[in-house]
Write a structure and sequence with these properties.
Helix content is about 55%, strand content about 5%. The chain is mainly α and about 290 residues long. This is 3-methyladenine DNA glycosylase.
Length: about 290
C-alpha cells in the first residue's frame, strides 16, 4: 500500500480539480445562462457523470490517505490503521457485473484493428429526412440544407457498428446502415477506430469509480472532449459561429482528413484502454488473493 500524507493527497486533489474545471466551469456558466452548446454539452448530458462528480478526486486502489475521514462518507472506502483506503471487496460485491462487462468489452475492442471507413456519417443518419423542428440541434443550420444532407446519406455507404450511435438513427436511415448493431452484440462489434467507442472510455472510467484513479478519468474525459470536436466538425451542422470549422466528409479531402484524425484518436485511446483493463485486472487480483 502506498501511503499519502494529507498534504500530498490535497495537492493531487487540488491539481485534479483545477484540471477538470477548465471544462466543468464553462459548462456550469452556460447552464446558468440557459445556453446550449451542441459540442460540449454532450459530455455532461449524454454521459451521466455530473460536473461535481468529475471534480471529485479518487486515488484508486492500493493507496492509503492519511487524515482523510471525509472519504468515509463516500461509498466503498474503509478506515485502516494508517488512514482511509478503497474497500475493494465492497466495490466488487456491488459492481462485479459492471467490472466483468467493462473488462470484456475493452479487451475485445483492443484485440481488433481500427476500421476507418465510417466518415462520421452517423450524425448525418440522425437527421436524415427529418423536418427542421425534429432535428436535435435545430438551433444550428445544416451546412448543405435538408435536401443536401439527405443526398449525402443516400450517396454514401453507412457502416456504423456502435449501438449507442445507431439507436439515434432516424427510422428511414436505419435500413441504410450496413450493420444492424444491437446491445446484445456490443462485444462483437466495437472496434478502436470508432469515435464513440473512444469517447466511451470516459464512461467506463467513471462507471468504475472510485476504483478508477481520477487522473485516468480525467485523461479519458479530455480524449472524449477532443474526439467530440471531430464528431461534430464532421457532422452536417454549420458550427462555424462557435469556432468549429467543418470537416467536409462529403468530399474526398474531407474524408481523408476524417480518417487521418480518426486513426490518431485510435492510437491515443489505446493506452487509456489498456490502463482501464489493468484497473479491472488489478481489482480482480486483489480479491482473488483474499
Amino acid at each position: 500500500m502506498k501511503v499519502l500524507s494529507r498534504a500530498q493527497w490535497h495537492e493531487l486533489r487540488d491539481s485534479h480539480v483545477a484540471r477538470v474545471r477548465r471544462f466543468t466551469g464553462p459548462h456550469q456558466e452556460r447552464k446558468l445562462r440557459k445556453e446550449k452548446h451542441p459540442v460540449m454539452d454532450f459530455l455532461f448530458t449524454y454521459y451521466s457523470h455530473r460536473p461535481v462528480r468529475l471534480e471529485r478526486w479518487h486515488p484508486g486502489p492500493g493507496v492509503v490517505l492519511e487524515d482523510a475521514a471525509e472519504y468515509l462518507e463516500f461509498p466503498h472506502y474503509k478506515a485502516t490503521e494508517d488512514g482511509v483506503t478503497l474497500d475493494v471487496e465492497s466495490f466488487v460485491g456491488q459492481r462485479a457485473k459492471t467490472l466483468e462487462f467493462v473488462q470484456a468489452l475493452l479487451t475485445a475492442t483492443l484485440s481488433r484493428p481500427a476500421r476507418l471507413g465510417c466518415f462520421g456519417l452517423h450524425e448525418w443518419a440522425m437527421v436524415y429526412r427529418q423536418q427542421p423542428e425534429e432535428i436535435r440541434h435545430n438551433a444550428w443550420p445544416l451546412r448543405l440544407g435538408s435536401d443536401g444532407t439527405d443526398e449525402v446519406v443516400e450517396a454514401s455507404r453507412i457502416q456504423c457498428g456502435h449501438f449507442d450511435a445507431f439507436r439515434f438513427f432516424t427510422p428511414p436511415a436505419r435500413p441504410r446502415n450496413a450493420l444492424q448493431p444491437t446491445r446484445d452484440d456490443q462485444l462483437l462489434n466495437e472496434q478502436p477506430g470508432c469515435l464513440h467507442a473512444n469517447m466511451d472510455l470516459f464512461k467506463w472510467a467513471y462507471k468504475l469509480e472510485p476504483a478508477t484513479p481520477s487522473d485516468l478519468v480525467a485523461d479519458c474525459f479530455e480524449l472524449a472532449a477532443d474526439v467530440r470536436e471531430l464528431d461534430m466538425q464532421a457532422s452536417p451542422y454549420d458550427l462555424a459561429g462557435l469556432g468549429y470549422g467543418p470537416v467536409r466528409i462529403e468530399t474526398p479531402e474531407g474524408r481523408a482528413e476524417y480518417a487521418r484524425r480518426q486513426a490518431e484518436f485510435a492510437e491515443q485511446a489505446r493506452p487509456l484502454r489498456e490502463r482501464l483493463i489493468f484497473v479491472c485486472q488489478s481489482i480482480h487480483g486483489v480479491t482473488s488473493l483474499r
